[in-house]
Amino acid sequence: MGLHNTYYRNAVVTGACGGFGQALARELIASGASVALVGMNRPLLEALAALAPERCAVYQPDVSDASAMQAMAADWMARHGAPDLVIANAGVAGGFETGMAEDLAVMRRMLEINLLGVATTFHPFLQRMLSSAQPAALVGVASVAGWRGMPGNGAYCASKAGLIAYLQSLRAELRPTALTVHTVSPGYLRTALTAGNRFAMPGLMEPDAAARALLRGVQQGREHIVLPRRVGWLSRALSLLPARLHDRILLGQPRKPRAGQAGATPIPGLVSEQKASE
Fold first, then answer.
1. What would the pLDDT profile of 64-98 be if each residue is shown by its tens digit?
2. Is residue 1 scored above 60 in pLDDT?
3. Interaxial angle between packed helices 103-111 and 154-173, expressed in degrees from 0 to 180 and rounded to the nearest 10
4. 95 pairs with which residues across the strands?
5. Distance separating alpha carbons of residues 57 and 233, to the nearest angstrom
6. Percent helix, percent strand, percent coil in the chain, to nearest 5
7. pLDDT per position as a tens digit, 29-51
8. Catalytic residue at 188?
9. How far apart are CA 5 and CA 10, in angstroms?
10. Which among 7, 8, 59, 156 is annotated as catalytic?
11. Domains in the chain with CATH codes
């Protein structure tokens, strides 16, 4: 059952052209909200905006570019006012090997998008949301991969672990206000980010179901939302194992494709270390 009743009136969704982002946008649009659709694929974003042209706008900034995000926020708030929901969903994933020089650029770009991009998403809205004194929510999409490092996935795990810590800090700072902070930790969602995975994905969840669960959880005031919950239980159970045994189990799994390998997902704005130094 959808959330097509009184819900958030004004939402911002980054990564709105990914599978999860599209599902979130569709659910919010169907509920009657005005939605700022932020992403890199204009045709997909425009198709979403066509569902409610009078309530949607399309933006294509680099989420790690603070000036571009401030311009986006200023335009949206001039049209629709301060949002009561901001979902920082934009993210990239990919395998990583410290010994490969070209992968250092992958790590830098992943941290820029997955970690810095959340702060640059929240920043331009924060003061207006606080000054409204109305209940509102900031949502950061992290991952269960941020709970523990995994072989061949160091950049992604580090970016999501950093995000979880950042959201904890922000939540503590905003306790005295009407603005809440929510950490979402998906396991495996059936999206382009997992399409190239060559390992088992327990609890694989459809993005539409995940979007509804996220929005319900935020509406219910849950500060930590795991999608699906059983993946969180499995991850916690594995964490009880001795570290050497835990690592041995993970080392036996196929690794996520690195940038440039078959099945790897694109990383927007990725520049190799060699080119960056020229």
1. 999 999 999 999 999 999 999 999 999 999 899 99
2. no
3. 20
4. 258
5. 38
6. 50, 15, 40
7. 999 999 999 999 999 999 999 99
8. no
9. 14
10. 156
11. 10-277 (3.40.50.720)
